[in-house]
Amino acid sequence: MDLHEQQAAGAIAERIRLEREDRGWSLSELAERSGVSKAMISKIERCEASPTATVLGRLSGAFGLPLSRLLALAEQASERLMRADRQAIWKDPETGYTRRAISPATGNGLELLEVTLPAGVRIPYPASAFAFQRQQIWVTGGELEFAEGEVVHHLRQGDCLELGSPQPCVFFNPGKIDARYVIALTRR
Amino acid sequence: MDLHEQQAAGAIAERIRLEREDRGWSLSELAERSGVSKAMISKIERCEASPTATVLGRLSGAFGLPLSRLLALAEQASERLMRADRQAIWKDPETGYTRRAISPATGNGLELLEVTLPAGVRIPYPASAFAFQRQQIWVTGGELEFAEGEVVHHLRQGDCLELGSPQPCVFFNPGKIDARYVIALTRR
DNA sequence: TCATTTCGTCTACTATAAGAGACGAAATTT
DNA sequence: AAATTTCGTCTCTTATAGTAGACGAAATGA
To answer: Are A9 and B53 in contact (CB under 8 A)?
Structure first.
């Protein structure tokens, strides 16, 4: 279980306890309302179990919240300050492509990602990935060839590109050294 | 498993398959990227297993999406037309309080709920439940005593109240017959 | 045409989520 | 103060989530 998941699990646990206590419900009461055993809810709140989608659905139902909203609240619950050593990092085992989530979960829809793209690596994205967001790409090191639909942009260190309407895109590093760039995006 | 959960599970399954296929990834490829076995991903996509929060976290990580966003997309994926017989209903076993989700998941932030509140029943909500939404209450049958912080509103059939700033609220049915009302709310 | 690879499903097994009920601590009642 | 209730945790069992690897079908290549 990596850092990202640990945070998620802990945040979900806290959020469920919070929603329950806000309503003044005991474990037994929530158990009765949701149909999930109180032993299980206790374990979930203490991070001793990872709830299934089924159980999360029942709990969010009892709270009268859509599941996505319960999760969003959980993610928002964390700190406004995200220390460098707590930022979630994800690395593609195959290409060495690395993505670091800079922003705290409380991003108010604004997210910063720092990406390292090894030389020669090509990363395609479907148009749907850009459907509900605006984003900019700021190259901080190396060079990047960014294909936005049919249009190809050659970006060098310091360049910053704002993306247009959603299109299938490809990130490609044509150079001999790692490319580094920052993605800034706002949701919706 | 009630209707709400069935839909959720099915929608999650579809969404995961969609995100995977959009990226042109095979089960093996997603398995490698996410650290979840391809057998498990196959079961999840075919609704033969309910993924744990841990596994959902790994999958959303591989897609580069926050978990709440993946779930939100899953919920949005359903039809624009929500047939009456497919609307999720939740009933409090203790009080008989019933809530029906009228709107399709594609509500664009607009949700309609129809509530039946039995005579004499009292339902409190914490202020936090109203934090990121505007809502109105429209009484369609019986009468409703709605306490918004210190202020108490007596609502009769046909009345419609717009809620103010977030405060702890209480729904109470002072009458002798079921109260029925519609909640219209916009998120954020 | 036959071999090789790739894909998703299936089988068998292990790890763990989930439920039923017991238990001790704390609060409440009489 | 003793009895009763309420609360959250713990124990034990069962159900099922999750993994490793085999398998047949389809696609690809020689």
So the answer is: yes
Q: What is the ipTM of this complex?
A: 0.60
Q: Any bridge partners for residue B185, and if so which?
A: B111, B135
Q: Where are the domains of chain B?
A: 3-76, 84-187
User: Given 3-state DSSP classes, what are the helix, strand and coil percentages for chain B, each rounded to the nearest 5?
Assistant: 35, 30, 35
SS3 A100: strand
Q: Which A residues in the span 77-136 are in contact with B, Cβ-Cβ below 8 Å?
A: 88, 90, 92-94, 99, 105, 124-126, 128-129
- Cβ atoms of A147 and A170 closer than 8 Å: yes
Q: What is the mean predicted confidence (pLDDT) over B88-117?
A: 73
Kindly report the CATH class assigned to A84-187: mainly beta
Rounded to whole angstroms, the Cα distance separating B117 from B128 reads 22
Give the count of beta carbons closer than 10 Å to the beta carbon of residue B110.
11
List bases, strand C, within 7 Å of protein CB.
6-12, 16-21
Q: How much is the average pLDDT of B127-149?
A: 76
